[in-house]
Give the backbone structure.
Amino acid sequence: MTMANCPRCKKLFPKVYDPICEECAKEEEKLFRTVVDYLRDNPSATVGEVSDATGATAKKILGYLRDGRISISTPELNCRGCGTKIASGNFCDTCAVQNQKDLDELGIKDPDAPKARPKPAPTGPKKVVMHTRSRGGK
Ligand SMILES: [Zn+2]
Ligand SMILES: [Zn+2]
């Protein structure tokens, strides 16, 4: 059995499934449920309002959004591709489609591959460095 220190309460616990201890996992789950319940009743709440009402930190709520575990009708996240406001996940629909296309072309299946950001690549003259190996000679 692997023992690990819970990153949340610093307690030593037998690490099985969760990266945090059972008690903290329960607490986290409870908090998550609270957020979900609150959003069900207040679908137009902003992250700030959810945070105030549930006690979950804004960072945590944004984490839920990034993970796609919750969605919020007020876009609070920025698309990682083009920076447009999105309600959940990492990319706007346009970029998600584009990313998928790029990935398909490359034959990569990982949607989180760090290839998504359209960046003007500096295309300077390619430098060909010739290494003349002087090994063995005198
Ligand atoms: Zn813990
Ligand atoms: Zn985008």
The longest strand covers residues 2-5. The pocket of zinc ion (ligand 2) is lined by residues 79, 81-82, 84, 91-92, 94-95 (CB under 6 Å).
